[in-house]
Write a structure and sequence with these properties.
Layout lengths: L4 E7 L4 H9 L8 E8 L5 H8 L6 E3 L2 H7 L5 H13 L5 E4 L8 H7 L17 E5 L11 H10 L5 E8 L9 E8 L6 H27 L3
Parallel strand pairs: 1-2, 1-4, 2-3, 4-5
Antiparallel strand pairs: 5-6, 6-7
């Protein structure tokens, strides 16, 4: 199908948000959409198994920072980021979705995806490819890792009444790109962290699909 919208999804863990995208592809939620590659920086990430068990199965790839640096003396973190970018760009995606990807990209990745750096093999040169990221916090709050736990602790300390989730465009500043979809998630008095986390994840599964459709409709409308 020539008008199929192509997505590459990057993961690091269990892949529940990836599963939401797998379930939504080629439905009214994500029409004419195909996940062409799932890439993980952790070999044991269960999301890779989810991709392999999808019908039809989705190709997977694995590349981790420390093994890459050990196997390539003299290479840097930026070189690793660029290598990930090259793997992604070979898929000719319309959109890249970071769905629980626990690695902060620097210039090596973003410059290639956004077309800033063209000093590379011509086979990977493309038009700028949008990159979006799911983050379990509201814009400007709890950037970076352990956002859910930090928000829950802030609630216990009386500092906030709610948290939330967002999908945003990826820029070099961590979790500071333009928000695409933002949803508040209340924290209920007396509830355990696990209960809050479960409710928040359900909202994540909804908005990652919504934001993916929003971006695809912008860059490759049906």
């Amino acid at each position: 199908m020539t008008n199929t919208r192509r997505i590459v999804v990057l993961i690091s863990g269990s892949g529940t948000n990836l599963q939401a995208l797998i379930d939504a592809q080629n439905t009214p939620l994500l029409p004419n959409t195909q996940i062409t590659l799932v890439l993980s920086n952790r070999k044991a990430a269960y999301g890779l198994t989810r991709a392999q068990h999808a019908i039809p199965s989705i190709p997977t790839a694995y590349l981790a920072l420390q093994p890459y640096l050990k196997a390539n003396p003299g290479k840097t973190r930026d070189d690793y980021d660029a290598e990930v970018a090259k793997i992604v760009l070979k898929e000719n995606p319309d959109l890249v979705v970071l769905a629980g990807w626990m690695h902060v990209f620097g210039d090596g990745f973003l410059d290639l995806l956004y077309g800033v750096n063209t000093d590379t093999d011509s086979s990977v040169l493309r038009q700028p490819i949008p990159v979006i990221n799911l983050h379990p916090a509201l814009p400007g709050a709890f950037d970076g890792t352990n956002a859910i736990e930090r928000a829950y602790e802030a609630f216990q300390n009386g500092e906030i009444k709610h948290s939330g989730v967002m999908v945003h465009k990826v820029v070099k500043a961590v979790d500071r790109g333009e928000p695409l979809i933002v949803r508040e998630v209340l924290i209920e008095a007396g509830e355990p962290l696990e209960s809050f986390e479960e409710r928040l994840h359900k909202v994540e599964h909804e908005i990652i699909v919504e934001a993916t459709k929003y971006m695809l409709d912008a860059v490759k409308p049906i």
